[in-house]
Amino acid sequence: MSNVSSGARAWADEAIRKINAENNRSADTHLYSVPLPEHWGVQLYLKDESTHRSGSLKHRLARSLFLFGLVNGWIAEGTTIVEASSGSTAVSEAYFAQLLGLPFIAVMTRTTSPEKIALIEQFGGACLLVDHASEVYAAAAEVAATSNGHYMDQFTYAERATDWRGNNNIAESIFGQLALEEHPVPRWIVVGAGTGGTSATIGRYLRYHRHDTGLTVVDPENSAFYPGWRSGAADFSTGRPSRIEGIGRPRMEPSFVPTVIDRMIQVPDAASVAAMRHLRALAGLHAGPSTGTNLWGVWQLVAEMIAEGQRGSIVSLMCDGGDRYAGNYYSPAWLAAQGLDPEPHEKTLREFFDSGIWNP
For residues 328 and 252, what is the distance between their CA atoms, to the nearest angstrom? Predict the structure, then answer.
């Protein structure tokens, strides 16, 4: 009988131990209560995923993808890790690759924020920039094939790498942190979709545990997820990249599971920026644009609950911090160059908080 603990297996065992030890050292992320007018009867909670060591919600995904690759035998000592990413997943994967002593290459579009590129390089990774979002898949596969590499392919494996039944996934964490709140089972959970992995995990968890909670997925302009969900087309494509980093895709990704989603809301890009900026004034939380997309959907759901006299809670995610976007979404010059004017949407938010009525 061969010694299965020797050689490659021993390295993989140690790699899994390191990842689990890193997780064991890490505290859970905060679930903030965001102040809303008491007479509305609605509580809003934001789970702050920016406090992970690699700075975003994608820390959870990267950990799961590395463990998935290790237990499947796809990642071994010396394997070059390759990913197609708009930034945050690459930052998190670069962190875990450095933890295991593996080289890392991120394939991303040239429009990715310089702050994210700097973070990838800070964790020892390298960046390969392409012109269009549709090019990242083939380029990443080619880099992996020519570099003794493994293409992580978050867009295919995100939904299957995370245990949706529990095992400390984000949904289980949310419900554990809500246990002592006035409304421990929220009326809605609101998330965006980049790979679709987070919405798939939460949607499956809600059904498995029979929670009376709806899952709303928000989607930016140009993304294929919303029109694909509405039409029921599994292969819908817009061919256009999202302007909101981290969410929205030009095609329906394999990890996107539309059947676990109760509702989708399409969000104008300028509205995402407006809601991102409004959050800082409202709650002192400095977030990125995908958090703004979440909140634009949240406020519509809050308004509906007010109008219908419903009392309850809503949970959403603060996906990453605003520091990563100082040079673009927080830059007036960059916004103007992109044709994004958040002011009309900020007016909508001011009027909503004055009246409790949603009138975009």
Answer: 26
Among 1.10.10.10, 3.40.50.1100, 1.10.10.410, 3.30.450.70, what is the CATH number of 58-158? 3.40.50.1100
Residue 224 contacts by C-beta under 8 Å, 6 or more apart in sequence? 236, 237, 238, 249, 250, 251, 252
Q: Quick one: average pLDDT of 241-245?
A: 93
Exposed/middle/buried for residue 253 (C-beta within 10 Å: 0-12, 13-18, 19+): buried
Quick check: 348 and 341 in contact, CB under 8 A? no
- Residue 208's H or E segment, with its range, is helix 197-208
For residues 73 and 12, the answer to whether their CB atoms sit within 8 Å is yes
Measured CA to CA, the distance from residue 15 to residue 192 in angstroms comes to: 31
H-helix or E-strand containing 43? strand 42-48
pLDDT at 1 over 50: no
Measuring CA to CA, how many Å separate 294 from each of 204, 259, 299, 338? 20, 20, 9, 21
**DSSP symbol at 79:** P
Confidence of residue 112 (pLDDT cuts 50, 70, 90): confident
Packed helices 269-283 and 343-355: angle between N→C axes, nearest 10 degrees: 50
The number of beta carbons lying within 10 Å of the beta carbon of residue 3 is: 8
Tokens (6 digits) for 160: 């299957």
Token pair belonging to 346:
């900020």
